[in-house]
């Protein structure tokens, strides 16, 4: 059987590292895969090489020449490095296009994005969104509409991925995830961004905080369930099955939902149990303060990431056989587990 050549970007990160670990487990047909990973440092390359992964050193995401060349040597790219970096995503697809011309075989690009692309702005009231989205609807058209109103790098990249893939005959699949929770299984970073950021801040400030009243809803997914969705798509692709791609290939991954106040309350409760917070109370703060503490001063991003509404229903993946198993109880229990990992970072 011909080996399938897979390139992973972001293999040292939370999502990419967990996907890579899953790929290397014996329950996958790893013997039929040649797995490569783009990495920036020699120590990362050495660690991955010891696991049977072919490391490819590159400078950074702006190193388009190396990125394109690497993709041109693979059949499938799983891009988890950054959903906000348009030029690197385009470079990967162009590389896959070259591969396709060389081999005459279809190439595939699985891209990582997020539901902040759909989120509204309830505090500044510059955009209000009340609907619950399903990935069976035309999400591409909705993203295009929103992008015309406000440029947002992650959404810009989604549109570029779809358009570039269609223009060059590369099949693209976008996995648009909400808040991701749970401890990852990669060799390097094992924590997500949103909730751990709030945990670190609570540990430093001595109390949990919420942006605004925290009443808006977002979805969430456990990292293990999310990895399972990538696995389902990859399996279908390798088997040669035709699945939704391009404009129809935007997949949601949410399995439950929360309010931002519930997140802050969960952090406060875990902090008290761990002895680093004195109270389970949550302090309400404004955009300027939240941006300074959580997003490096970026007020536009902090509203989307920590106060907005973004509700989705993941249908496409389930139709392909994806079976997430984590429950609301797992989400609630994750606060204590993740806070422990956050506290270990400083030791």
TrEMBL record:
InterPro entries: Epimerase_deHydtase, NAD(P)-bd_dom_sf, NAD(P)-dependent_oxidoreduct
Signal peptide: none
Molecular-function GO term, any one: aldehyde dehydrogenase (NAD+) activity
Annotated Gene Ontology cellular component terms: cytoplasm
A UniProt-annotated Pfam family: Epimerase
Alphabetical list of SUPFAM superfamilies matching this protein: NAD(P)-binding Rossmann-fold domains
Domain NAD-dependent epimerase/dehydratase: 6-239
PANTHER family: NAD(P)-BINDING DOMAIN-CONTAINING PROTEIN-RELATED (PTHR48079:SF6), PROTEIN YEEZ (PTHR48079)
Protein name: NAD dependent epimerase/dehydratase family protein
Species this protein is from: Dendryphion nanum
């Amino acid at each position: 059987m011909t080996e399938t050549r897979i390139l992973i970007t972001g293999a040292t990160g939370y999502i990419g590292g967990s996907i890579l670990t899953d790929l290397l487990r014996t329950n996958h047909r790893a013997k039929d895969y040649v797995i490569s990973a783009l990495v920036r440092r020699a120590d990362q390359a050495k660690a991955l090489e010891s696991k049977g992964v072919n490391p490819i050193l590159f400078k950074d995401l702006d190193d388009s020449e190396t990125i394109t060349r690497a993709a041109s040597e693979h059949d499938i790219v799983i891009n988890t490095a950054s959903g906000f970096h348009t030029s690197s995503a385009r470079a990967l697809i162009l590389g896959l296009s070259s591969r396709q011309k060389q081999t005459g075989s279809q190439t595939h690009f699985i891209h990582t994005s997020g539901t902040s692309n759909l989120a509204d702005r309830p505090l500044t009231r510059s955009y209000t969104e009340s609907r619950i989205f399903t990935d069976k609807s035309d999400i591409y058209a909705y993203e295009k509409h929103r992008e015309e109103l406000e440029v947002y790098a992650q959404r810009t990249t989604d549109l570029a991925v779809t358009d570039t893939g269609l223009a060059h005959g590369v099949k693209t699949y976008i996995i648009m995830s909400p808040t991701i929770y749970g401890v990852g299984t990669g060799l390097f970073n094992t924590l997500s961004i949103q909730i751990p950021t709030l945990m670190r801040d609570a540990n430093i400030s001595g109390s949990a905080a919420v942006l605004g009243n925290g009443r808006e809803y977002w979805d969430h997914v456990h990292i293990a369930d999310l990895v399972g969705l990538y696995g389902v798509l990859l399996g279908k692709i390798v088997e040669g099955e035709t699945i939704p791609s391009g404009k129809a290939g935007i997949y949601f991954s949410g399995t439950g939902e929360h309010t931002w106040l519930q997140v802050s309350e969960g952090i406060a409760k875990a902090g008290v149990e761990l002895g680093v917070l004195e109270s389970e109370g949550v302090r309400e703060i404004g955009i300027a303060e939240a941006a300074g503490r959580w997003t490096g001063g970026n007020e536009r991003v902090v509203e989307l990431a920590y106060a907005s509404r973004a509700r989705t229903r993941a249908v496409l993946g389930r139709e392909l056989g994806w079976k997430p198993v984590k429950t609301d109880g797992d989400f609630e229990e994750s606060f204590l587990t993740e806070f422990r990992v956050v506290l270990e970072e400083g030791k």
